[in-house]
């Protein structure tokens, strides 16, 4: 009996070694130059040229190969891109013929690449809110040229990215739609570039609270002698620098026309979320990131970095189907009208009334 068990154990060890050797052989045969361009973009969402740029940025940040048969850095990056893009479980990624790996190896590659994309200098390079008047004026001009609404430096909203139930502080992540999520705040410009993102709050946190704690709010309030607006929905408190819809506005009145334009421009953030999730499908609400909240937040930031790289390079991603759009809408938590202090609210009303009057004069 003991001899039989030893033979079985030896056979299992040999089988594992053979699988490992087969994976290594297939990885060694991988030559990305043989992958057609359209297939490369379809699998990894980046063009070959943009992939090379990404490698130059983050390969130095990846751990060096620990042994002769270790995973090449470029293959680690391809593996992570494939996971971000497909949004499927790690096992299915690791079994692809273009990068066969054990699930544990895929997990390690994903963690290393995600950590590299979250390096502070990488985040600063690719996700950057305008810091001076010239940069703000450029964004304002683009919004004005497209929509005719002046002084807009961005649109803001939050989106819930589903995660598995956390082992700690579960109540912070359980949202009003009864699933666990990261409530991710994003600010974008008219080109769908993400200029600011915060993926550190659980799904139980309201949009208005995340904005209230955001450093960009303090930055905008500190600007002197410059008119700047962010556009948000009624989940945000009306402020001098935060333009929200007018409640119960009459259609075709000045307030109604402002609401129509404000919503039209604000759709920019909805399109940004659509493009982001269409390209990096691991973020779709119908799926779940099977990681702790901290790691899930880093994956979200990594996808935002890659989103901006693709937008700047003019690379189109796959669009969400109508069914996927509907699934996203049903899984998102409806906003709650933000409470507001009297003095700040009055200042916001004066600013919004001035904007409405300016739009009426320019009709």
From TrEMBL:
This is DDE Tnp4 domain-containing protein. Its cofactor is a divalent metal cation. GO terms for cellular component: nucleus. One of its GO terms (molecular function) is hydrolase activity. Pfam families: DDE_Tnp_4. InterPro entries: HARBI1-like, HARBI1_dom. Residues 156-308 form the DDE Tnp4 domain. The keyword Transferase does not apply. Keywords: Hydrolase, Metal-binding, Nuclease, Nucleus. It comes from the Eukaryota. The lineage of its organism: Eukaryota, Metazoa, Ecdysozoa, Arthropoda, Hexapoda. Belongs to the HARBI1 family. It is found in: Nucleus.
């Amino acid at each position: 009996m003991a001899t039989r068990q030893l033979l079985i154990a030896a056979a299992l060890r040999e089988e594992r070694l053979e699988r490992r050797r087969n994976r290594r052989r297939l990885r060694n045969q991988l030559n990305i130059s043989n992958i057609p361009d359209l297939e490369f973009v379809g699998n990894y969402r980046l063009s070959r040229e943009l992939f090379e740029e990404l490698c130059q940025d983050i390969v130095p940040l990846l751990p060096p190969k620990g042994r002769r048969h270790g995973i090449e850095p470029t293959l680690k990056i391809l593996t992570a891109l494939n996971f971000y893009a497909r949004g499927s479980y790690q096992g299915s990624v690791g079994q692809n013929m273009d990068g066969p790996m054990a699930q544990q190896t895929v997990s390690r590659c994903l963690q290393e690449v995600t950590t590299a994309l979250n390096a502070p200098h990488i985040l600063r390079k690719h996700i950057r809110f305008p810091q001076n008047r010239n940069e703000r004026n450029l964004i304002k001009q683009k919004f004005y040229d497209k929509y005719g609404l002046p002084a807009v430096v961005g649109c803001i909203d939050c989106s819930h990215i589903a995660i598995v139930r956390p082992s700690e502080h579960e109540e912070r992540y359980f949202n009003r739609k009864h699933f666990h999520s990261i409530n991710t705040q994003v600010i974008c410009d008219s080109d769908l570039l993400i200029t600011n993102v915060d993926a550190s709050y659980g799904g139980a946190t309201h949009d208005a609270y995340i904005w209230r704690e955001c450093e960009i709010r303090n930055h905008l309030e500190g600007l002197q002698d410059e008119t700047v607006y962010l556009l948000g929905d009624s989940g945000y408190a009306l402020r001098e620098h935060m333009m929200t819809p007018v409640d119960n506005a009459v259609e075709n009145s000045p307030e109604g026309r402002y609401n129509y334009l404000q919503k039209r421009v604000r759709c920019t953030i909805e399109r940004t979320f659509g493009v982001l999730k269409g390209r990096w499908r691991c973020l779709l609400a119908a799926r779940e990131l099977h990681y702790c909240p901290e790691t899930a937040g880093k994956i979200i930031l990594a996808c935002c970095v890659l989103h901006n790289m693709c937008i700047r390079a003019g690379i189109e991603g796959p669009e969400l189907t109508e069914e996927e759009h509907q699934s996203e809408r049903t899984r998102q938590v409806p906003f709650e009208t933000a409470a507001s202090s009297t003095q700040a609210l009055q200042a916001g009303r004066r600013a919004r009334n001035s904007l409405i009057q300016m739009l009426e004069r320019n009709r």
